[in-house]
Amino acid sequence: MNFAGLEFTTRFLKAKERSEAELRAHLTELGVSEDDTEELVVWAKSKRFVDDQRIIEREVEIASTSVLRGDALVAERLARRGIVVELELPFEVPEFDRAHHLARSRRDEDLPKLSRFLTGRGFSPDTVERVIDAVQADLTEPRR
User: Fold this and answer.
1) Count helices and strands in the chain by DSSP H and E runs
2) Is 6 helix (H, G, I), strand (E, B) or coil?
3) Which residue of 53, 70, 88, 113 is 20 to 30 Å from 60, comparing CA positions?
4) CA–CA gap between residue 127 and residue 121 (Å, rounded)
């Protein structure tokens, strides 16, 4: 294994958690050979310094709890890191529930504005439409 490549790898992985694709791209930019890059990626994966599944799980957890995001935005964020998710993301909370919770917490009666906000957060058009219908029903319901 190339010692300089190993040093580049460990320094790069120290800064923050990286995906396999990010590590490959970084080593390629530094001019590390293809064979050494492959060996370094295998080494990093064996030591669990690089774990794409862990990144997916973290993005799903963040999207489900603190920063409520839609499935499309999570998939886009992962794709930017070189992780392509072909199966359904493992969300514990359905997209509608996340979007509805977010909409209720905003207390926004401007439905077109709320629709744009939810769309920007990566919720599917179908989910946004259902949430807007639910919010509209809440607004028209008589208060007790």
Assistant:
1) 8, 0
2) helix
3) 113
4) 12
pTM of the entire structure?
Answer: 0.77
Whole domain around residue 41: which residue ranges? 3-50
Give the CB-side neighbour count of residue 111, counting CA atoms within 13 A: 13
Tokens representing residue 15 in the block: 């800064």
Residue after which a domain boundary falls, among 18, 33, 50? 50
SS3 content of the chain, % helix, strand, coil (to 5): 65, 0, 35
Give Cβ neighbours of residue 109 (< 8 Å, ≥ 6 apart): 139
Domain count along the chain: 2
129 Cβ contact list (under 8 Å, min separation 6): none
39 and 100 together in one domain: no
Which residue in this structure is represented by tokens 């530094």? 30
In angstroms, the CA 89 to CA 109 distance is 31
Number of residues written out for the chain:
144
